[in-house]
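Module 6 notes. Inverse folding takes a fixed backbone as the condition and produces residue identities as the prediction. Think of it as a translation problem where the source language is geometry and the target language is the twenty amino acids. Below is one complete input and output pair. Work through it position by position during the lab.
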């Protein structure tokens, strides 16, 4: 029987890697907010200028920005969930 668990002390630099990943998650969330603001502005311009294509692209941008924020925010939970599912197999 093979029993292997994650080892947080096996390699040097694991703590720094956690800090880097946390910083990248923060940058991803900030960029998601920026994308949401820009997409909402595009949506507003498209709606007010009677340009359905621009309004449609703005709506899609809002949805993509929200999805990106959901993925950035729930990345750790998703990985932990699938790790637990994998351990149950």
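Target side of the pair, the amino acids:
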């Amino acid at each position: 029987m093979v029993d292997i668990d994650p080892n947080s002390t096996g390699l040097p630099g694991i703590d720094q890697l956690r800090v880097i990943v946390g910083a990248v998650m923060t940058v991803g969330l900030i960029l998601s907010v920026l994308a949401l603001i820009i997409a909402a502005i595009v949506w507003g311009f498209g709606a007010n200028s009677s340009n359905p294509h621009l309004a449609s692209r703005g709506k899609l941008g809002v949805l993509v920005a929200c999805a990106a924020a959901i993925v950035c925010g729930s990345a750790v939970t998703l990985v932990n969930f699938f790790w637990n599912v994998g351990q149950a197999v």
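Reference fact for the lab report: The chain has a mean pLDDT of 93.
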